[in-house]
Design goal:
This protein is mostly helical. It is built from nine helices and no strands. The protein is globular and about 70 Å long.
Length: 248
């Protein structure tokens, strides 16, 4: 049963540029440590995203919250995200549902349309035009998929921080994240778009630049979360972590 106090949140408090500025100020003295934590977490999580991405994201936010509290942060803190393994996997699976329903069909439709157009142009002998149309459509597909991902990501932005900070179950964390994101929709969407733009610029720098931007964008998310969900008082009795998920 979710404690109502753990799910209270503020409305209209996310300012994208300020979150980025505060995020950089928070980690700049230990930038290289958080770069290592962020890159390692994302790479490990991407190896088997359904199972590993959730715990890795929880570990990254654990380290960021430690930094906010002025505590000593170590690289090993990343792997403490596995303390929330079951609930983070549940949250990951829930987040995949809209991607399967919305993004994948859109992607397939656009790709098949792109191939059909290229094939038709090739049959008419317009090789150069076909190639230009092919790459043009690829860019459109990339932009559409990115925008859809950003839009859907808005609603799940607070999910893993809620599992870590408020000890919510995966289901409750998703529900609460959706409610809080809707109450702060403009700011959260603006932050997601700004971070997507920065990441895209980083990718243009031989992709490597995206990794250097990653700790700043993740910290900006943590700052936005803390604005929406203020830190609980020290004497607050936080509920114990939810039990691991049963797969039987």
């Amino acid at each position: 049963m979710m404690n109502p106090h753990t799910s209270d949140f503020n409305r209209g408090v996310v300012a994208p540029v300020e979150c980025l500025r505060e995020g950089w100020a928070l980690i700049k003295d230990q930038y290289w440590l958080f770069l290592g934590i962020s890159v390692a977490g994302i790479l490990i999580g991407s190896a088997f995203a359904i199972v590993l991405m959730g715990p890795m994201m929880c570990g990254i936010y654990l380290c960021l919250f430690q930094q906010m509290r002025g505590e000593q942060v170590g690289f090993e803190g990343l792997f403490k995200g596995f303390d929330f393994f079951g609930q983070s996997v549940i949250a990951t699976l829930i987040q995949m549902i809209p991607a399967v329903i919305v993004i994948i069909p859109v992607y397939l439709i656009m790709v098949f349309g792109m191939l059909a157009s290229a094939s038709a142009a090739g049959t008419r002998g317009g090789g150069g035009a076909a190639m230009a149309g092919f790459f043009g459509t690829m860019i459109v597909v990339f932009v559409v998929i990115m925008l859809l991902s950003v839009f859907l990501g808005v609603f799940f932005m607070f999910t893993f921080p809620l599992i870590v900070d408020r000890k919510l179950s995966g289901v409750d964390a998703v529900k609460t994240s959706v409610k809080a994101a809707m109450a702060n929709f403009g700011g959260v969407l603006g932050l997601m778009l700004l971070n997507a733009l920065l990441s895209t610029c980083g990718m243009l720098a031989c992709y490597v630049g995206a990794f250097f931007i990653m700790p700043i964008t993740l910290t900006a998310h943590a700052i936005a979360y803390r604005r929406v969900f203020p830190a609980l008082p020290p004497n607050f009795e936080s509920p114990p972590p939810p039990p691991p998920a049963s797969w039987a």
